[in-house]
Amino acid sequence: MAQSDLSRTVEPACQRLAQELGLELVDVELVREGANRYLRIYISKPDGIDLDDCEKYHRSVMPLVEHVDYDFLEVCSPGLDRPLKKQKDYDANVGNQVEIHLYKPVNRCRRFEGELLGLEDGVVSISTAVGDMHFALKDISVCKPVVVVTEEELVQDVEGETSK
Predict the structure, then answer these.
(1) How far apart are CA 125 and CA 12, in angstroms?
(2) Strands 123-128 and 109-120, how do they pair?
(3) By the 8 A CB rule, do 30 and 37 touch?
């Protein structure tokens, strides 16, 4: 099944189910890894996804995707550094640090980091230490938020876990 078929047939059914369950459908992808084909469905909600959310969605979506040729069905959270794919993803991350990877190098570099200025007319703009840069969306292999974890946050997490 081509990605366009997935977008046309599977994604709308997954979207309806997500809405019924109070979730956001982030992405649907069918990928080959080794000899296996994985149908991955990424879901989210404002207060975060837990295992129960994934399990409930998984059970409910199985009959809706039985016509798809896959070996494994995975329902999961997209994570903090989920790639920006849709206009709403770019809009939600304006002002945040992002990392952009290009298919082909520009000035012998394929990776750029900067503050996301936005996505407009198929062009992603970032502000870097050397000035604003603009990249055609079609030239970007991945654009994702930069997640910075401080030592203080790690200590707080460890202390919070040990006090439970």
Answers:
(1) 30
(2) antiparallel
(3) yes
